[in-house]
Design goal:
Layout (H helix, E strand, L loop, with lengths): L8 E8 L2 E9 L4 E5 L2 E3 L6 H13 L1 E13 L8 E12 L11 E7 L3 H4 L3 H13 L1
Parallel strand pairs: 1-6
Antiparallel strand pairs: 1-2, 1-4, 2-3, 2-7, 5-6
Length: 136
């Protein structure tokens, strides 16, 4: 069996009024641009909350006045060690651009909260948003 060793990660449900802030980016496994929640891997020594703030700034140019952890789950435990921490981010404000990773090509999009599940392209985002909706 092949096991993918993956560091822990974060997914951020960024809520601005009645809209979700999402990112569209190219994903090699999908061979297309997918629409997802802002997300990313924890860096060495970084807390999940700090990673959520960093990823939201890098991918969306935003900071949140409030971050609330809403849960965690294994992404694909059958073949990956990735454990995802999910945060709600509210009271959003623009921040100066932060340098993205060289391999990132991200566009920010907003969709109504009511259309979020239908708009998302990946399982981690769908699971994170469903967890958020259940715990609102």
């Amino acid at each position: 069996m092949q096991l993918v060793e993956h560091p822990p990660s974060v997914a951020i449900v960024a809520v601005d009024g009645d809209e979700l802030v999402l990112v569209r980016q190219t994903r090699p496994g999908a061979s297309e641009r997918t629409l997802e929640l802002p997300s990313g891997k924890l860096e060495r020594g970084e807390t999940p909350r700090d990673a959520a703030a960093r990823e939201l700034a890098e991918e969306c140019g935003l900071a949140a006045g409030t971050y609330r952890k809403i849960g965690s789950f294994w992404a694909v435990p059958a073949y990956s060690t990735e454990y995802v921490h999910v945060f709600e981010a509210t009271a959003l404000a623009s921040v100066p651009a932060v340098a993205m990773d060289d391999d990132e090509d991200v566009d920010v999009e907003r969709v109504p909260v009511s259309q979020g599940l239908e708009a998302l392209s990946d399982a981690v985002s769908v699971a994170a948003l469903a967890l958020w909706q259940r715990r609102r």
